């Protein structure tokens, strides 16, 4: 399906759904042509739990973006998050038929496709296979093996896994809203594309995207993605806490958080009070800002500590894995006052707020450069990239369909009895991890 030279990113979030249309200008920067936003009503903690509502919200956002830009939306790139996402490390290799020929794209593809065949837990599906470093004939730490000679090509992979049903539900919403699903991307990766600079990814950086329903983490070092995680808490639970703690309705709690909220309780004086209108003829409520920020502080600390555990799991304490560029905060939740200082205090790492203007054209609308739109801008970038790759992908698809016939793979399974063994060990490990995650919830 031809869609002119523009692409579309669709961010299906817990609090809002954003459709964003854009294209690359002659300087390689991204020009935003239209944006549409609607309240998200059928999504809970990053997972669709009401198909009909979600379809409605998607259609609203899409219509708004179309009206805004005067363009028609066809195919979209969608982000996926939610607590069902997990990631794991895996290494695999292929033996090349002809070591007299240099390694090319096809070799890398067949190595990646082999990883996609990993046996997952029932009900799970691989979303991304991200190569980290390659090894050619035992020579390690190769970033780009194309053009080299070698018989055995090996790589470490970062594999991102999600629940089949959740992915299918997202696909169903897109189809029912009258759109084509171009691609599904992990949301932390999309946000990272939008807000991180090349230098930060090289130096080592943790991107924390605090959304409404989930907090997403992506860690880069030496320019390569090293770790991803989705934590099932976000700005929504902070609002929920304020609602419960102050006995007010959600709308009031949200506006209190946005207007007066702070992650640092020390700065509010005891006598700073905000008065909230009572419900239907009841007395107005008075809430001290100190109490408000205490409620927010408690929950934010919990979220950041969970993220910090993930950063430690990656191995931040090791000298070689140090994240020199520290932390970048983005997403709607990153706009909370004094959050940067609190994150620095808890983690001891340099922190900045990430705005998705890294790759946007200079004359872009102020609004789009807000951390709120980081994921949407990243998905748009992904859509533009995949449109550029479309022809290559088409060839790939044909190759994948023919793959089972290829003799090389048939022999591989006979020649390499180790592979079966490794999978079963891997299965046991994933089951353990799953139990652990279930208990953790």
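Q: What amino acid sequence fits the structure above?
A:
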């Amino acid at each position: 399906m031809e869609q002119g030279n523009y692409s579309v990113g669709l961010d299906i979030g817990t609090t809002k759904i954003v459709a964003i249309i854009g294209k690359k200008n002659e300087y390689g920067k991204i020009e935003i042509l239209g944006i549409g936003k609607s309240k998200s009503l059928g999504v809970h903690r990053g997972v669709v739990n009401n198909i009909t509502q979600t379809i409605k919200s998607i259609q609203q956002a899409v219509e708004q973006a179309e009206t805004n830009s005067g363009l028609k939306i066809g195919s979209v790139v969608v982000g996926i998050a939610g607590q069902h996402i997990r990631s794991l490390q895996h290494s695999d290799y292929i033996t090349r038929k002809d070591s007299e020929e240099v390694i090319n794209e096809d070799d890398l593809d067949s190595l990646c496709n082999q990883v996609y065949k990993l046996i997952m837990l029932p009900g799970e599906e691989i979303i991304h296979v991200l190569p980290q470093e390659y090894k050619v004939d035992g020579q390690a730490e190769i970033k780009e093996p194309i053009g080299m000679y070698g018989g055995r090509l090996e790589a470490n992979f970062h594999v991102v896994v999600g629940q089949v049903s959740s992915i299918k539900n997202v696909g169903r919403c897109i189809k029912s809203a009258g759109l084509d699903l171009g691609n599904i991307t992990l949301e932390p990766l999309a946000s990272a594309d939008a807000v991180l600079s090349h230098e930060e990814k090289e130096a080592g950086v943790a991107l924390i995207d605090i959304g409404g329903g989930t907090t997403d983490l992506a860690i880069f070092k030496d320019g390569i993605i090293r770790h991803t995680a989705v934590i099932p808490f976000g700005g929504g639970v902070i609002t929920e806490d304020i609602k419960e703690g102050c006995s007010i309705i959600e709308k009031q709690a949200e506006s209190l958080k946005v207007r007066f909220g702070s992650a640092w309780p020390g700065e509010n004086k005891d006598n700073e009070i905000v008065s909230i209108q009572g419900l239907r003829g009841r007395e107005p409520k008075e809430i001290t800002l100190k109490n408000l920020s205490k409620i927010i502080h408690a929950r934010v600390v919990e979220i950041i500590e969970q993220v910090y555990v993930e950063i430690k799991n990656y191995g931040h304490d090791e000298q070689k894995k140090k994240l020199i560029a520290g932390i970048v905060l983005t997403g709607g939740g990153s706009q909370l006052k004094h959050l940067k200082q609190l994150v620095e205090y808890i983690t001891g790492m340099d922190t900045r707020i990430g705005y998705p203007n890294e790759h946007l054209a200079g004359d872009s609308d102020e609004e789009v450069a807000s951390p709120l739109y980081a994921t949407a801008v990243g998905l748009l970038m992904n859509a533009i990239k995949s449109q550029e790759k479309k022809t290559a992908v088409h060839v790939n698809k044909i190759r994948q369909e023919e793959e089972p016939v290829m003799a090389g793979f048939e022999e591989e399974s006979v020649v390499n009895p180790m592979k079966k063994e490794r999978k079963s060990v891997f299965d046991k490990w994933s089951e353990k991890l799953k139990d652990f995650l279930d208990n953790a919830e």
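Q: And what stands out in the fold?
A: DSSP finds 13 helices and 18 strands in the chain.
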